[in-house]
Design a protein that fits this description.
By secondary structure, this protein is of the alpha+beta class. It is about 40% helix and about 20% strand.
């Protein structure tokens, strides 16, 4: 499964997990599925006629090795087929086991 971060042009920061605010720290950024990332970008960009989005999805596979290394533990649940919500929620993780 492809995984994404979302860069907020408006806030000059990464989206945090669960769509809960912004962070300048890569290791605190949320990891989203492609569908989630595209929905967030679409919802956040109210007026596409202006020609520039407010938010941009960034495919983790396209990041430099050093950045992917920082995110390695966050990506693992997606590679195992778990959702972002269950990866971030210890109760959901326990129920999946």
């Amino acid at each position: 499964m492809e995984t994404y971060l979302i860069w907020s042009i408006e806030h000059r920061a990464w989206w945090r997990p669960g769509r809960m605010g912004y962070t300048i720290w890569l290791d605190a950024a949320g990891v989203y599925s492609r569908d989630e990332a595209m929905q967030i970008v679409d919802d956040a960009t109210m007026d596409w006629s202006r020609g520039a989005p407010n938010e941009v999805p960034v495919r983790i596979a396209d990041l430099p090795d050093a950045a992917r290394a920082i995110l390695a533990n966050k990506i693992a649940p997606f590679e195992e087929g778990r959702s972002a919500a269950s990866a971030a929620n210890p109760v959901a993780r326990a129920q999946e086991s």
